[in-house]
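Cont'd.
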Amino acid sequence: MREFMHYITNAFYGATGWNEDNTYKALNATARELIDFPLPRGLRLTLSSLATPHFATSYQLGSVGIVDGSISYLHSSVPLTGVAARSDRIPLPALLRSYRRLHDLGAQERQWFWGADEPTAGPAAQTPAGVGASLDKYKSSLLYGRLYLPQSLLEGLVVRRFSPALQVQLSAVSERSLRNGGTLLGLVQYDKGKYGVEGLASTDGGLLGVRGLYNFGGDTSPQAVTPPAGQTYSESNGNGQSAERDRIYGRFSTGGEVYYGTLNKSGGMSLGARFATLPAHRGTPLTATLTINPLMGNIDASYAVLARDYCSLATRVEFNVYSYESEWAVGMELWSNRRPAGFLLGADPNSQPEPAPEPPKRKERSFEAKMEWRLDDPDPVAPEPFKTESEPASAGSKEEYRGVLKARLDQNMRIGLLWEGRLKSLIFSLGTGIDFRKLGEPFRSLGLEIQYSS
Amino acid sequence: MAFNFNWSPLTADADFYDRARDLLTTALNKSPKPPIIVDDILVTEFNLGSVPPDLEILEIGDLAEDRFRGIFKMCYSGDAFLTLKTRVQANPLNTYLSAKPGFTSPQPLAAASSLTIPLQITLSEIKLSAFIIVVFSKQKGLTLVFRNDPLESLKVSSTFDSIQFVRDYLQRTIEAKLRDLMMDELPAIIHRLSLQLWCPDQIPLYDEEPKEADEEHAVNPLATPPLDAVDANGQLVGSAAISELSLDGGPESQSLFSKKNLQRLSDLTGSQFTSSLFTPSVGDVMFRAWAGPSDKVDPANTPPLSTPNLVRTPSYTGSAHAYTFSDSGSQVNGSFASRPSLSSFNSATAGLALGSGRHNKAGRKKKMRVVNLRRKAETEANSEQGDEASEVSGPATPMSEPIMDHAVLEMPEEQSGLPSSSTNKVRFGRPSDLPQQPRRQSVRTEAFKASDAQVPSIKASDATVSSQVPLRLSEKPAPVSAANIAAADAKSDWKRSKPMSDTSSVILEQAWIMKMAGEIARRVYDEKNRNPAFWDDRDDAPPPAYEAR
């Protein structure tokens, strides 16, 4: 589950038209989130609120043996009016879904202020009027601070947009146990759609880094970026007649990163490539990545697929050519539209007032089919979430999914199970880690997170 | 005399190497490892070699059939070797990130991917040169302590010998680590090994190092061993073992306590920490609360030397008094008597500070006898007491009569201006006003009994005191600096208390002091009231420290 503040920060990026996925850091985010999802530990309660469109607060209380907590505040210079912040309204996929679809590169810097104005042609984004109207909005900034209480650890984040393509992030941690009392990380992000470059500097060890991502193929090719081309794609999708559209249609991205610690005289680097299908692709959405660390001889390949809209799968294989060590892991995500309470208490789904009585039955069968890997039940509602996900605000009223089950397994026979969903107006996340190697006490961790926001 | 050290039987024992390997492995994995080491450190090979170390006997402190204590000079340049195996993280970025907070992590995509490399390190050509203190006893096993840093040089060869930088780094790091191991861990390891050899029954008890509770006993506890005697570790000691023990056995000497009494004493101590009203009854022990003024001690033994202290105390009438009663019952050398010391300050705040300090620490710290006679201006802080006390407890000079006289003579001058010495008397007469140690541990019954003979008597007759005081007043004192007086007086105090070092009873002495001081104060007050003229023309050259404020 993404934390509320993370969700609000994402909403800020969405409101300012910043594509946070267009960096090298997020190259394999899909597989990572499907496989390496964090498991909650202990009990954790979060009480959050988007008090005004500019201001959000969040209080967290946790207990893992000892009671701890945190207080966080967030201020955005951009009003986050359209954001569903109440926990009974938040679209669950925005909070829980791991599979990331590619954003439209051409539209990412226009969608925000063109939502109000009338949309024009793509290359006309640099028209003086449009820029003038949006210039002050591009000067948006976000301030975020969080204080962990017993540890007195302070986190701070400043995000500032300077131009449509330039954004600076400054994050800092202050704690007594750290060397020099804390660290500071500066991140300069330059995103031109077709390519994105980041430079970073950390006070810790004097680390400097550069990473970049370059997109090619698919919609970034010159003829594809024009609106008529996009229209033909969608039109052909609608028709479903053209055989050439059946072939995989996606975008290639490639990039690399270099780090160097000026104080400890050490460094690191990696190269990576990704292929991901675009939303316009008709077939199964998939993402495949390959990263190579030439210094350490590490090769990492991952493959994630959105098999159905309620089912995502991912695998990852790592191999080191120097030490011959290898690792594999698989992850899975299953969405359910049943009530979580029905799961929990075995209650009659008919007691739920809103939905029609018959859909739960059908969903129940389909879920069983999913569990048995028998996908023979064609789900009539499967195509719908495409629309709901593209417009999360409207999806809040008529929500499809109520819970998601995530599971992972790695080569050490460790299983992570996470079940997240909504119970009335609470969003919960129940997770456990199981180690089959140690059958004496297989449960390595158990945790429950409850989030309420208003 | 000849010693026969066998080196080869150690190595001939097949089990020995296994045990030593296990012990070394656990010792190496005990402390938290740096993030660069991602696996346990395993000792795969360990060999002591065939060349024994050269031992040169410097001193033998104790020698008997079952115990030995000596100091050696050891030189070793043999063929022992040690091979360690572990796995290290070769990616510097990975180790860099592992200790950093995630919020400011640069979050590299794959640049921090881990590469673990098995590492094998062989330590050989170890050259040692050290002074070793060896203490052996059958009860406590073998203790071996290095007097200095024993490691002279060693050769580190590893998987990365071809890389100069890594080799140097490893050499440096391992040398430092090994020095730590030699100084801290090796004595413990050897101790455990020896325990396994000689007294396997004591091993579980040695999780904590034995406390050095032995030395504080100068009393012979073996004269009347308790029925259920236990040693310092709470282990039962049989009567046969008791008879074997000797008092002057150095570190091996066992202290014997009655287990029941120990239990009760610890209950009693524990009850002071809480608000528990439970008071266990400890046999043969007199509690301070019972020790009122009515406690009579042997009248025959009245050392007049203790009077100066007491005579002087009322002279600070009107000023704030702080009495620090030191408890030396728990002192290591046991030579200090449990004897209250008085310290006076001219300001109430100083007195208060002392009082509060008493609540915190006075009951537990190793006490110093502090007699602070300086004025407020000269006493900077309480901390100075420590310095002064340390110098006070220096070598004892023989008591000299004039010094005592000066000390006595201060009294009337102060007294003259301030006729309200009765407050002091009240203070002394009321035991509840007196500072008391919150906990008085090691109230030893033996000490208490023996104290009857030597504790100064309360029966110091009033007549003696009163006659003494004016008699000394008639002498002309030379101006003596207050510090001198303080030091000298403290010395005298120390000196006087030394004879009854092991036998003094704090309780009785305090009671006696209370009574004496009250009595003297009253006498002086009466005397002054009766004959003010005598007090006025008494002295015109007061010691500078006691000039009127």
